[in-house]
Task: inverse folding
């Protein structure tokens, strides 16, 4: 972990203080928003694509507990017209040692047991934290030209997209000068999270508010209606989870301590070219 | 070697489970303290202020067309009040029922269902958003609360309208109640509804009278209304939080 001389020469200040702080606040807020959100979902574990829940269209996703032919209670998940037995995870799971009918299991919800009022307190507090944190990050990143310098793809980046995809599926990571900047897939992933997924989360959250719906009556129909907004909120949330899983995986395989240190102290050690001899 | 790697794997799994347990247990423990939920509620209080800042006092909730109506309007909460006096009214089709209005008003009054039906009315097809996450679209007809308020004339001190309901919620006989502020009380879409989907309001949906507060969640829209009380504070009513569910941890302002 300690820097040796050579590493110190090949390290640079990668992440500004504001970026580091907002990164970790974001991580905490997103984790709590997901888990409290799933507790809220459990109060009505059903998603529709319509203006209301009770329309002529069937739900697109639903979990429930049902009795199997042999009399056992099982968890059932329905996606469109397909039913799956998901006992133990969705529909029916163990809570404090006994089976309970609930959408998502207790180990992934805040609070761990069904408590809608409390889950809402958690959710809205951390939603505001996320929004304020996001505003701080955006203001800093636009003014300091972090977005323009580090995140917007250059023409060269676009040309390297094929090679970058191949590098990623082979788990190969850039060394030397190339490691000092984000690759094209990394840039696109960050841009998508910052400018598409997180704004969509906030917008679909607003769409579920009867008061905010009254800003311009009917605007919610542009995203399919209120229940469609709830469905989108759910889908985008899991898309963010997918991003985080890939993000964590890449952090792990491209030098976990180096990456972690750069997001804590700001300093990032550039991996040397594999075949070039370093001057001693 | 195999036994060794197995036991290491088991150790790692147990460690992960234990860490997860501590984190989740920590969240549960924080939820049970006094101070932490109080801090969390800052979020909802911020929502209330921001939502009022970005929407007009009389901004209108979306109104829908007959095409959008839910095939049946779900009955939620109390489906049929377990109360002898209410059941007698229901047997008599609410012929002797009266809506009492008192408190901080210049002219306390009682209204029969017939009198309310004879007053100016409003019809609106709106979406009912439950705090649980579901919604249903229904067509409501009723007298605007504003029309009733014009007759009883709230005093300058009146800040809230409290809805007192017939339905007992538990063995102790705690009755449902709710409250809204004067901004929502005077709002044109706030109506005392006596019809749902072109028929007399069914018992499952709150007969003889329920309030519609279209810019808030369903639990604000009290059913089985018996009495309106105008007050300057709800601190001494019920648990002091302004409503049955509010006394059980839900926010008084239910705009999201």
Result:
């Amino acid at each position: 972990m300690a820097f040796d001389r050579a590493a110190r020469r090949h390290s640079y200040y990668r992440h500004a203080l504001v970026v580091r702080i907002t990164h970790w606040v974001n991580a905490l807020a997103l984790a709590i928003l997901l888990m409290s959100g799933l507790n809220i979902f459990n109060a009505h574990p059903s998603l529709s694509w319509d203006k209301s829940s009770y329309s002529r269209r069937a739900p697109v996703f639903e979990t429930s507990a049902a009795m199997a032919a042999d009399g056992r209670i099982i968890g059932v998940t329905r996606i469109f017209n397909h039913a799956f037995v998901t006992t133990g995870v969705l529909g029916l799971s163990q809570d404090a040692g006994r089976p309970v009918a609930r959408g998502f299991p207790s180990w992934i919800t805040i609070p761990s047991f069904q408590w809608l009022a409390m889950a809402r307190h958690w959710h809205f507090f951390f939603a505001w934290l996320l929004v304020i944190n996001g505003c701080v990050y955006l203001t800093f990143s636009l003014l300091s030209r972090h977005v323009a310098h580090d995140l917007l793809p250059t023409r060269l980046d676009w040309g390297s997209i094929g090679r970058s995809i191949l590098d990623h599926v082979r788990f190969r990571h850039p060394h030397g000068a190339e490691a000092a900047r984000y690759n094209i897939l990394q840039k696109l992933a960050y841009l998508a999270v910052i400018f598409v997924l997180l704004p969509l989360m906030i917008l679909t959250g607003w769409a579920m508010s009867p008061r905010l719906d009254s800003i311009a009556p009917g605007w919610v129909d542009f995203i399919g209606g209120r229940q469609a907004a709830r469905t989108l909120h759910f889908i985008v949330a899991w898309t963010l989870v997918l991003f985080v899983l890939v993000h964590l995986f890449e952090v792990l395989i491209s030098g976990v301590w180096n990456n972690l240190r750069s997001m804590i102290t700001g300093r990032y050690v550039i991996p040397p070219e594999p075949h070039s001899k370093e001057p001693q | 070697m195999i036994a060794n790697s197995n036991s290491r794997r088991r150790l790692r799994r147990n460690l992960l489970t234990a860490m997860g347990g501590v984190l989740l247990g920590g969240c549960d423990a924080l939820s049970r303290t006094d101070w932490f939920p109080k801090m969390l509620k800052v979020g909802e209080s911020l929502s209330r202020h921001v939502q009022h800042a970005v929407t007009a006092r009389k901004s209108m909730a979306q109104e829908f067309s007959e095409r959008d109506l839910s095939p049946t309007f779900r009955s939620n909460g109390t489906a049929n009040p377990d109360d002898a006096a209410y059941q007698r009214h229901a047997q008599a089709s609410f012929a002797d029922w009266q809506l009492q209005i008192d408190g901080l008003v210049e002219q306390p009054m009682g209204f029969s269902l017939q009198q309310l039906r004879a007053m100016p009315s409003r019809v609106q097809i709106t979406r009912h958003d439950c705090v649980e996450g579901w919604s249903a679209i229904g067509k409501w007809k009723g007298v605007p609360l504003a029309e009733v308020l014009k007759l009883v004339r709230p005093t300058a001190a009146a800040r809230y309208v409290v809805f007192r309901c017939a339905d007992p919620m538990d063995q102790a006989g705690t009755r449902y109640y709710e409250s809204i502020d004067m901004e929502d009380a005077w709002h044109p879409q706030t109506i005392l509804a006596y019809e749902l989907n072109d028929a007399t309001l069914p018992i499952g949906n709150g007969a003889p009278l329920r309030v519609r507060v279209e810019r808030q969640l369903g639990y604000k829209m009290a059913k089985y209304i018996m009495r309106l009380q105008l007050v300057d504070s709800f601190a001494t009513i019920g648990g002091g939080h302004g409503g049955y569910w509010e006394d059980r941890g839900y926010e008084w302002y239910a705009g999201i």
